Amino acid sequence: MQAFCQAHGLAKSGSKAELNQRIANFLRTGKKLVPKKKPTKIARTEELTLESLIEENIIFSEKHRAFFKQELGESFRFKVAFQKWLKSNPGKTYREAVLMYPDIAVKKPEKIDAQFEYNTYIRDFFIANKDRSLQEAIVCWKHKKALPGSNKYDVSDLSVLESR
Fold it and tell me: Residues near 160 by Cβ (< 8 Å), separated by ≥ 6?
């Protein structure tokens, strides 16, 4: 995707999803989307406590990870849902975050974010094909990914297994 962007004068930076959107827009309209500048984030320097307030534009640093591991135990993980909760709750205390974490951590994600297309594909493959192997799922994924268009699982993807 970066090679395509470079060849057509499009910005090459950003996530896979952003590049995909930029390319799709260019192919559809012929116009070049300019990536938006993200505001510079400043890492927190003071010590975190349960009474500290969650900052605007929070940066998930090792300091944050160490704090949550201390409060929640070694099994703590910065799951996407928890990161989203922190980002959408500036001004609340870290105590509130610690209390919310167990509820957030046990929930299964309803939708896998776009940058995790592989995970989504494999999950959907096994929902439709409980008797198939991971090896077969990967073969189908690699075939699908090489094709133009959507990377969503479709039953027709199994045809690549028949030609092996």
Answer: 139, 140, 143
